[in-house]
Amino acid sequence: MRKFLNLAFLATMAFACSPNEQETTVDYTTLSDEERLEVAKEIAHETIIVDGHVDLPYRMKVGGFTLQREILDVSVRTPDGNFDFPRAKEGGLDAPFMSIYIPAGLQQTPGSSKALADSLILMTERLAETFPDKFAMAYSPAEVETNFSAGKISLPMGMENGSALEDDISNVAYFHERGIRYITLTHGKANLIGDSSYDTVRLYNGLSEYGEQVVAEMNRVGIMVDLSHVSDDTFKDALALTKVPVIASHSSVRAFTPDFERNMSDELIQAMAKNGGVMMINFGGSFIDSAYAAGTDKAREHLINYMAENKLSQGDSSFKVYASEYMAANNPFPSVKRVADHIDHVKNLVGIDYIGLGSDFDGVGDSLPTGLKDVSMYPNLIAELLKRGYTREEIEMICYNNVFRVWKAVEDYAANQK
Q1: For residues 398 and 353, is the Cβ–Cβ distance under 8 A?
Q2: Is residue 353 packed enough to be buried (19+ CB in 10 Å), middle (13-18) or exposed (0-12)?
Q3: What's the rounded Cα separation, in Å, for the pair 389 and 263?
Q4: Reported pTM
Q5: Is residue 134 over pLDDT 50?
Q6: Tens digit of pLDDT for each residue in 174-215?
């Protein structure tokens, strides 16, 4: 049962007849942390929360689940991973974009990238078919809203790495028919479409000629252009070509990680805002704090030396106790506050209209910040934003309204091309 807030707070709330009126009545910054978290939980459960990037499909593949083997049962609480139905319901998550992730290494084998994409799409669909009371596919904002009203978690899909298009432009329309609603143009390596932020090789210094055709065709059929992972030049080329707003489904602010091109510079954030696009903040430790990698390296080195000096292995109970105590005292992980810092930065730079959430849950390993370790913890971030003076309306924009605006604009443009 939900814990009751103090009587003074309830009396204040009683004057509010609607969320908008409530905004003028309640100053969330004056509440205690406990009260603010209760409000955050209410907001999380009353508001649609869209997450731009959750790697559950590939987590299932890595776990050995295939079309021939029963799927991972995420209808119940799972002992590992960051996503399952019970935790998503606790956190208020309603529409996690299922990442149809295609490793760059498959690009060397023609046909293998498309085959994997088809397989992961089928596995995602099977989740909805197997647990129809809990999950449902969603191919539009309207379907997300319908599923939300029914208490179901939507499973929209985005394809991470345009390499699955192979060298056939007709595959853009094919994957739209299969339910893909965004395509991340590249991943860890340059592909036929363009250059990647992770790749030292720059084959095209931006988009290829084929990549230009892909962006135009994505606009035509109604697939959002996702500019996470691409190089700065690819990013700029795509913005110059697209006729509709774009997204970055799981990227954070480069100002906090100066040597990490995978994140977005202030110049790119401003360019995306001018385009009307949305930047969906990644929660991964290396994305949100440049000190994280150094801290984990130091901790890892210390623990390796401790094992060697004491002739222990990772499985020894005494080492496990020591490692747990050491990590607790020397925690390298950033906190939920750091994610809020990234949101603050974008808001202060270009405004609230261009921010979303793209956690990268199930995709960044054990690097997630304290307070945002899995999908049950979105209220912790909402509470931190309330503490910083964000209004309920602004939080709703971050949670879903901004990305819905882009998604609908892409739909509308495509509808007008027919």
Answers
A1: no
A2: middle
A3: 26
A4: 0.88
A5: yes
A6: 999 999 999 999 999 999 999 999 999 999 999 999 999 999
For 97, the 3-state DSSP assignment is strand
- What is residue 369's DSSP assignment? P
Question: How far is 15 from 21, CA to CA, in rounded Å?
Answer: 8
Q: How is residue 42 written in tokens?
A: 């209410």
- Antiparallel, parallel or unpaired: β 247-248 and 278-281: parallel
How many Å is the Cα radius of gyration of the chain?
22
Tokens standing for residue 234: 């690819």
Task: Give pLDDT tens digits for 338-377.
Answer: 999 999 999 999 999 999 999 999 999 889 999 999 999 9
Q: 184: which strand partners?
A: 160, 226
Residue 333 predicted with pLDDT over 90: no
- Least confident among 176-190, 231-245, 289-303: 289-303
Number of neighbours of residue 149 by Cβ within 10 angstroms: 9
| Residue written as token pair 């390596």 | 189
Helices marked H in 100-250: 112-130, 141-149, 170-177, 209-221, 232-241
How many whole angstroms separate alpha carbon 347 and alpha carbon 100?
29
- Name the nearest CA neighbour of 160 among 230, 213, 221: 230
Q: How confident is the model at residue 4 (pLDDT cuts 50, 70, 90)?
A: very low
Find out whether 223 and 172 touch, Cβ atoms under 8 Å: yes
Backbone angles phi, psi at 220, to 5 degrees: -65, -40
**Nearest one of 247, 187, 195 to 218, comparing CA atoms:** 247
- Residue 57 CA to residue 346 CA, distance in Å, equals 30
Give percent above pLDDT 90 in the chain. Answer: 79
Burial-class residue 67 by CB neighbours within 10 Å (0-12, 13-18, 19+): exposed
Residue 155's SS3 state is strand
Residue ranges in 47-111 assigned as alpha helix (H): 56-62, 85-91
Question: What is the average per-residue pLDDT within 402-416?
Answer: 98
> How far from 68 is each of 34, 62, 71, 100, CA to CA, in Å?
47, 14, 9, 18
Q: Are 244 and 410 in contact (CB under 8 A)?
A: yes
Q: Residue 401, Cα to own-chain centre: how many angstroms?
A: 15
DSSP secondary structure code for residue 158 in this structure? E
Distance of CA 176 to the CA centre of its chain: 20
CA 126/CA 183 separation, integer angstroms: 21
* Other Cβ atoms within 10 Å of 83 Cβ, number: 24
